Amino acid sequence: MFKVNKLTDYATVLLIEIARRKVVQSSQHIAEQTGIPSPTVAKIMKSLNRAGLVASRRGASGGYSLERAAELITLADVIQAVEGPIALTACADTSDEHCNIESICPVQGKWNRANTAVRAALTQVTLADMVADMTMFGVPQHVAQTTAAE
Amino acid sequence: MFKVNKLTDYATVLLIEIARRKVVQSSQHIAEQTGIPSPTVAKIMKSLNRAGLVASRRGASGGYSLERAAELITLADVIQAVEGPIALTACADTSDEHCNIESICPVQGKWNRANTAVRAALTQVTLADMVADMTMFGVPQHVAQTTAAE
DNA sequence: AAATACAGGACTAATTCAGTCCTATTTACC
DNA sequence: GGTAAATAGGACTGAATTAGTCCTGTATTT
Ligand code: FES
Ligand code: FES
After folding, report:
1. Residue B102 with chain A: CB contacts under 8 Å
2. Strand positions, DSSP E, chain B
3. pLDDT in tens, B75-134
4. What φ, ψ does residue B33 adopt, rounded to 5°?
5. Is A95 helix (H, G, I), strand (E, B) or coil?
6. How many CB atoms lie under 10 A from the CB of residue B20?
7. Number of cross-chain residue pairs from A and B with Cβ atoms under 8 Å apart
8. From first to last of its 150 residues, what are the pLDDT tens digits of chain A?
9. pLDDT tens for residues A37-79?
10. For strand D, is any atom closer than 7 Å to the CB of B7?
């Protein structure tokens, strides 16, 4: 199945939780709210911070908050933060958008168009969209565990 | 990194090889042409056949040929054939397009839009496009090994 | 100064993927 | 009709990736 990492799915849950409450929340607190184990939450939050999606504050009463509005955070951003670059096939390119040896690489040529198309698709979907789609179904996200219980 | 399986990349190489020569080719022969190990080629070809992307002929002088024109085979088709359904997050849905429990599933709601967008993106890219992109770079695909050899 | 919370990274366990191989069935050709 | 060529299906193993945990260090508040 063609899918994103589990951690990426978690990441969206965490970001949505942070977006809902506007205040700074500790990694620990977010874990309790979402039901995701706190070491894992900590790991993901570090990635999100390094990618500049959330702002962090150290020390007592520190924690995380969104760096920008949910409308400005795209799925492409989240995936890149957690999994690294969006490139449908393995490539030496880790940096920007274009690989500098692609002219001699027989693999990338054919996947270029696909990469671009997928990146564009994922850039169209924002965090705000995901929140909207969720509430459309009338399900507050912390019900996850309740419904899972048989 | 957000990427497709290695086998899916192989599959595109195989399909391109089949598209170039118009005749029926055996799995063995395709393996020799592309440099991909023949048991692996056999495995992939079976998937492609089950998905209806290639036609097979058993028996002596049998082999595979494209079921339809390269313009009509999309990347979404290839990925689905090799990896199964395109669903960015795990879901009970294995069948068509819609999961029948999605109304009570807090995960899928938020990913629905993304799934649709990615599927659409991958449907836009055809095998014919990939061939064109490759030849644009002037690299016949079997050079892969040559360039890889340091 | 002490407590709280993030930063970075090493490490292990679990899962998934890639690759191989075996047996059965179908078809061409002599 | 018999033999060889080729696909169909599926079981199995080893490799690679991912998920999850934990430890040590640094910054900040009280
Ligand atoms: S390695 Fe970058 S284009 Fe192939
Ligand atoms: S399991 Fe199908 S929508 Fe969640």
Report:
1. 137
2. 54-57, 63-66
3. 999 999 999 999 898 765 444 445 555 555 556 678 889 999 999 999 999 999 998 877
4. -65, -35
5. coil
6. 12
7. 139
8. 899 999 999 999 999 999 988 899 999 999 999 999 999 999 999 999 999 999 999 999 999 999 999 999 999 999 999 999 898 987 544 444 455 555 555 566 788 899 999 999 999 999 999 988 776 654 444 433 333 332
9. 999 999 999 999 999 999 999 999 999 999 999 999 999 999 9
10. no
Q: B92 CA distance to ligand 2 centroid (A)? A: 5
Q: What is the pTM of this model?
A: 0.84
With 0-12 CB in 10 A as exposed, 13-18 as middle and 19+ as buried, what is A49?
A: middle
**Angstrom distance (rounded) from CA B86 to CA B94:** 10
Structure tokens given for B114: 């993304």
Helix, strand, coil percentages, rounded to 5, for chain B: 60, 10, 35
Q: Which residues, other chains included, contact B88 with Cβ-Cβ below 8 Å and sequence gap of 6+?
A: A2, A3, A4, B111, B114, B115, B118
CA distance B140 to A54: 45
Is the CB of B54 less than 7 A from some atom of nucleic acid strand D? no
Which of these CATH numbers, 3.30.420.10, 3.40.50.1860, 1.10.10.10, 3.30.390.30, describes A6-149? 1.10.10.10
Q: Is A150 exposed, middle or buried (0-12, 13-18, 19+ CB in 10 A)?
A: exposed
Check if B130 contacts A (Cβ < 8 Å): yes
Place of tokens 């998905």: B51
What pLDDT score was predicted for residue A1? Answer: 86
